[in-house]
Amino acid sequence: MHIVKRPIFNLTRREVRYWLFRFRKESVQSVPSNGSPKGLKAHFEMQKGFKTWKDFAVKWDIPNGEANEVVPLHMVKRKFSVWEEWQATMRSEVKVHPSFDSHEKVMDES
Q: More exposed terminus of the chain, fewer Cβ within 10 Å: N or C?
């Protein structure tokens, strides 16, 4: 099977974020990010404001857009980390059963 490597400036938002999360994991957990598009990691590391991969999805991200659209490869500052954003989304979308204050209460009753 022949794998065609795409130039980094033709990657979709989903593909770029996949590799950025891999670079973050490599930085935090020493898990190698083998097979990444050539030059992608260095492209972000050379940008003004880049300090560490641990900041990706916490302090910076890439521009919003559709997952399957080609995305500009520059950093944008985040107002909330992706985890804080996820929690806010879950709180606004998921209706809590009125008899439970939290998941800890459910755990205590079992």
A: N
pLDDT tens column, 21-41: 999 999 999 989 899 999 999
Span 8-18, pLDDT tens digits = 889 999 999 99
Dump the DSSP string for the chain.
Answer: -PPPPPPGGG-BHHHHHHHHHHHHHHHHH----TTPPTTHHHHHHTSTT---GGGBTTTEE-----TTSB-----EE-SS-HHHHHHHHHHHHSPPPTT-S-HHHHHHH-
In this structure, is residue 105 part of a structural domain? no
Q: How many domains does the chain have?
A: 1
| Domain boundaries, position 30 | 8-81
| List of residues 6+ apart from 94 with CB closer than 8 A | none
